[in-house]
Design brief:
single chain; 172 residues; alpha+beta; Aminopeptidase; seven-stranded mixed β-sheet; 5 helices; 7 strands; 34% helix
């Protein structure tokens, strides 16, 4: 990996960029796990410009990774409700890398950046959670980063489609 990598917080001006990267990454990632119909449905549900903007307005934070000035990756986190013991919870909503840059260390770099960003909030007790398809090889990546599988659940996302996920978490 080269040293000309920049990770920056995305703004609403980056919505088209995020959507364009998602149109490449999402089908590549889920093409063997989900039907094309479900991929199309989820792309519109998660990545319509209106939904990305609404997420940003509601407190989601997106980050863009640029290598040599070219966008190659993005992630998003969102604050969730506190646990009963007062632990602040953040959900890692997305961490995606263009196919040609996968397995280069960018995933770890971006994961570490997100963790550091959450730590910078100086919260007393904090946990990061995420949903990941049970068939996604990324499960192993997250386990290697220190997350653990807390439970598995199937989520009805509408239109007769389901997300069959592990819910993973780690204290930060």
């Amino acid at each position: 990996m080269t040293s000309d990598i920049i990770i920056r917080r995305a703004t609403k001006e980056d919505i088209a960029l995020i959507r364009n990267m998602a149109q490449i990454i999402f089908p590549h990632t889920y093409g063997k796990m989900l039907s094309q119909e479900q991929i199309d449905y989820m792309m519109e549900w998660m990545y319509s410009p209106e939904n990305i903007a609404a997420g940003i307005d509601s407190g989601q934070e997106y980050f863009i990774v640029e290598m040599a000035g070219e966008p190659v990756s993005y992630s998003a986190i969102a604050p969730q409700g506190d646990d009963p013991d007062g632990t602040k919870v953040f959900e890692l909503l997305r961490i995606y890398i263009l196919p040609e840059y996968q397995k280069t260390g960018l995933g770890k770099l971006l994961f570490d950046h997100v963790c550091e960003h959450i730590r910078s909030k100086r919260l007393t007790k904090c946990r990061m959670m995420l949903h990941v398809n049970r068939e996604n090889p990324a499960v192993q990546f997250y386990l290697h980063q220190g997350m653990r599988i807390l439970y598995s659940k199937d989520f009805d996302i509408g239109n007769n489609f389901w997300m069959n996920d592990h819910i993973m978490g780690m204290d930060i």
